[in-house]
């Protein structure tokens, strides 16, 4: 086991302060070999799915944002439900969103909102695991991941869209509820399918992605010779490698070699090359610049990029939290959709915005696990019975509302949607067969996705 300490994460409402670690282990690697991957791609081709050249940007609101404060406001509900802010009209007739989203209101025709998403669980870990993998098994009492992130499954199938780019990148890191890479990890698909993490703050003038530069004193010829020699030694041991570990390491090493030897990735990761005016549009903060970097990566050929925006666990002082966060989300989401359109990428890049769950429709009076002065600063608690997911691009129809919640925002009123439905829709956009099986740690075949229904009204 290779283990690197990578700093600390914030304290969540369960009171645990978790150190985040990058962990590379050998168990479960290479469960699906190259022949099986080729067969899976052939099956996708037979279903007419192979012509896709699309990518996904998932903006992850870690901690759980409240639907009734962002995209599903209830102005007619009692005061303790409707909250602090009013809805505003958008450029789509009948679609209203928070008054803290004026920029998104002007480009709402570019995205759609699922208002009836639910999984009915208020545990950070259970909810996060379900939203990111489509499966249960994790909880606050048993936090390790039990299944791979759907993005790891997708990129194991597709690889990058352009050679020389990592297929799956996390900006600035893959983290769910303080676990790194947590439920963004590949689990039994092997560490070669974990995200490439940029680390650092893309808003920092000295931001630089590690491990994509040529090692000191190393020429490309020497690096190629060293790589070839390592593979020769690996071949000597391959006949006893019944678990496919070396095959998985080959893929991992090849990706690393391409990053170092090629110019594509270094150019894409160099956000300093971006027009300063565009950087201003996304917002000169870590969240905005992380989202801009995600756009640079998918444009260069990365298939799946996650953007981590943490700190949404507002049991108290909801007002100051939302008034700080929502304008940043407004700038980065609106800039991303407009930027993709201007670059001719709207049909090639799918954008999703969501978190592990929502917040209670009825506000509390603060003080729920907070510091002494938090009493009297209203907040919202955990709620998985009604949530939102913003989706757009990649062939997703814009300006649509899928489903609704009841008058108090408590539960879906019509067209209930589950996380696997979102995943199946995403796989359709990416052109991937969701029925391919992978072997888990026990050698049992597990489908790529749990049963779900594609949101056909968005395609």
Overview of this structure, please?
By secondary structure, the protein is an alpha/beta fold. The chain is 32% helix and 16% strand. The strands form six sheets. The protein has an eight-stranded mixed beta sheet, with helices on both faces. The chain is globular. The relative contact order is 0.20.
**Helical stretch tally:** 13
Strand order in space, largest sheet? 8-7-9-3-10-13-6-14
- Rg value: 22 Å
- Domain count: the total is 1
The shape is globular
- The level-1 CATH class: Alpha Beta
Q: Termini distance?
A: 44 Å
- CATH homologous superfamily - what is it? Alkaline Phosphatase, subunit A
The major sheet is characterized as: 8 strands, mixed
Number of strand segments: 18
Predict the CATH topology.
Alkaline Phosphatase, subunit A
Q: Please state the structural category.
A: alpha/beta
From the coordinates shown, what is the CATH architecture? 3-Layer(aba) Sandwich
Binned, the helix content reads 25-40%
> Which percent band covers the strand fraction?
15-25%
């Amino acid at each position: 086991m290779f283990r690197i300490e990578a700093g600390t994460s914030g304290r969540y409402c369960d009171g645990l302060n978790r150190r985040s670690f990058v962990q590379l282990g050998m168990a479960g690697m290479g469960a699906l070999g190259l022949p099986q991957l080729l067969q899976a791609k052939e099956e996708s081709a037979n279903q007419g799915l192979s012509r896709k050249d699309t990518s996904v940007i998932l903006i992850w609101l870690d901690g759980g944002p409240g639907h009734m404060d962002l995209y599903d406001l209830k102005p007619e509900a009692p005061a303790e439900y409707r909250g602090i802010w009013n809805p505003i009209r958008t450029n789509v007739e009948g679609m209203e969103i928070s008054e803290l989203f004026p920029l998104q209101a002007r480009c709402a025709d570019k995205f759609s909102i699922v208002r009836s998403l639910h999984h009915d669980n208020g545990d950070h870990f259970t909810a996060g695991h379900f939203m990111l993998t489509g499966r249960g098994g994790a909880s606050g009492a048993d936090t390790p991941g039990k299944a791979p992130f759907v993005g790891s499954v997708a990129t194991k199938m597709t690889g990058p869209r352009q050679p020389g780019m990592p297929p799956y990148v996390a900006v600035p890191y893959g983290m769910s509820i303080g676990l790194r890479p947590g439920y963004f990890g590949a689990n039994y698909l092997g560490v070669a399918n974990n995200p490439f993490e940029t680390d650092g703050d893309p808003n920092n003038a000295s931001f630089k992605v590690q491990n994509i530069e040529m090692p000191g004193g190393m020429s490309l010829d020497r690096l190629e010779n060293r790589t070839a020699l390592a593979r020769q030694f690996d071949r000597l041991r391959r006949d006893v490698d019944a678990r496919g570990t070396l095959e998985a390491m080959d893929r991992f090493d090849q990706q690393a070699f391409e990053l170092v030897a090629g110019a594509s990735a270094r150019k894409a990761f160099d956000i300093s090359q971006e027009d300063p005016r565009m950087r201003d549009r996304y917002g000169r903060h870590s969240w905005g610049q992380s989202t801009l970097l995600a756009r640079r990566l998918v444009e260069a050929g990365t298939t799946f990029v996650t953007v981590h925006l943490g700190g949404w666990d507002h049991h108290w002082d909801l007002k100051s939290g939302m008034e700080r966060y929502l304008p940043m989300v407004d700038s980065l989401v609106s800039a991303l959709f407009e930027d993709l359109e201007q670059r001719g990428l709207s049909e090639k890049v799918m954008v999703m915005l969501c978190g592990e769950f929502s917040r209670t429709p009825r506000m509390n009076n603060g003080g729920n696990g907070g510091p002494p002065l938090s009493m009297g600063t209203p907040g919202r608690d955990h709620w998985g019975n009604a949530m939102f997911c913003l989706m757009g691009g990649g062939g997703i129809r814009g300006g649509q509302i899928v489903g609704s919640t009841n008058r108090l925002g408590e539960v879906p009123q019509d067209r209930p949607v589950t996380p696997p439905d979102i995943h199946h829709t995403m796989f359709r956009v990416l052109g991937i067969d969701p029925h391919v099986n992978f072997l888990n740690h026990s050698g049992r075949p597990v489908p790529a996705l749990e049963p779900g229904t594609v949101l056909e009204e968005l395609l």
